[in-house]
Amino acid sequence: MRILYAVGSWGLGHATRSLPLIQALLARGAGVTVVSTGRALLLLLEELGERCEFVDWPDVPQTLGRSALEFYARSALALPRMVQVMYRERAWTAELVRRRRFDRIVSDNRYGVQHPAVPSFHLAHSLRFIAPGRVGPLEWAMEAFNYRWFRGLRRILVPDTSEDRLSGDLAHRLRIFPPAQLAYVGILSRIRARELPQDLDLFITLSGPEPQRTVLEEILRRQLAAWRPAARGLRVVVALGRPEAPRREEAEGVEVYGYLDGRGQEEMVNRARVVVARSGYSTIMELAEVERQAVLVPTPGQTEQVYLATYHGRRGAVRAVAQSRLALPRDVEAAAACPGLRARQKTEGAVRRAVDLILAGA
Fold first, then answer.
1. What is the DSSP string of 259-306?
2. Contact 284, 166 (CB under 8 A)
3. CA–CA separation, 277 vs 260, rounded Å?
4. Tell me: the pLDDT tens digits for 214-254?
5. Euclidean distance between CA atoms 277 and 209, whole angstroms
6. C-alpha distance from residue 181 to each of 90, 151, 184, 353 (Å)
7. Coil vs helix vs strand at 171
């Protein structure tokens, strides 16, 4: 079976959660062609190597800025360009299907990669846009837009369950999507729980698009230098989330990696007592897979991350803090008193359910 699998490139989260699905499809004998770009494509190349064919297609423009106001202004200006890219993806997909005759299409946040003649699936946790101030009519309109765009798909694969509800209102309490179109398969994480000693006091993992990834890196470097964890007998590891620069260095007694592959990331999360990370949904699934305590720092202006951090902070599972208010010693101590994220339906079963649906074309 020939499968076209498209992966969004806003940060690394879509690539990391799609990775176990792609690996499972390969293990079931499918041939997979991966469409992505940027750091997401680099990560998938690193993890999958020659087992897949890779195609580099530009993604919709990223609209992050250094403030929430700049983010909303950029998003409004970029909307026509986003729609243009989505229609362009549809045209490219039609041409690729004509030449290659794919049997299935799977897309993770590449809206235009679908085809009416090929059973198409979309992996999505965000079916409702969380509007600033939770403006009801705007959220309804965005859910309606998603429904209209996805209505030709065989199924939308939601990496969550009604029991766990890790995605909150992003994928639950929907008002437009018919339940039959949605398959809640369980969380998808590239990392697994392992029996390792918890000998790291803190693991900091950065991800997401620029410029905010660099902004947070600079904040953390300053705070780590002032905190001097090594002098306090604390072991700290930092992963910067830069696949193009995977070097290792040591600064102020802190191990710093430009990039950790899936195995390295899995080891550090399992060894750490507390993890500091963005509140992207893929990161939340990874933390729930390993059941780890965490400090969640949402990307400024990215309403979904702000919502998820606030949602899980209010549930008492984690410490949630705005980037501008981050104070490592205080927030790490607060996170250690929280129970951490949990999920009852984990990756192994979720991958099996999702792959069965994809291969069956159901």
1. ---HHHHHHHHHHEEEEEE---HHHHHHHHHHT-EEEE-PPTT-HHHH
2. yes
3. 14
4. 999 999 999 999 999 988 999 999 999 887 777 899 877 79
5. 14
6. 21, 8, 10, 15
7. coil
